[in-house]
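BUG: 3D viewer hangs when loading the predicted structure for this chain

Environment: internal workstation, default settings.
Expected: structure renders.
Actual: progress bar stalls at 90%.

Input used:
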Amino acid sequence: MEKYVCTLCGYVYDPAKGTDDIPPGVSFEDLPEDWVCPECLAEKEVFQLEYLATKKRKPRGN
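Structure tokens produced before the viewer hung:
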């Protein structure tokens, strides 16, 4: 299962670990629609796949 990162605060949702309210093994897609980031209370819409959130952009050439 893939990890998701909150783009506002950097919190990483790891399905293997879950949260205080979510047991381990629950994928990000299966989280309740009203689930929010445990750190900053951001909605699910601001989360991004970890590999996309941490991917470095290449500088543009002239």
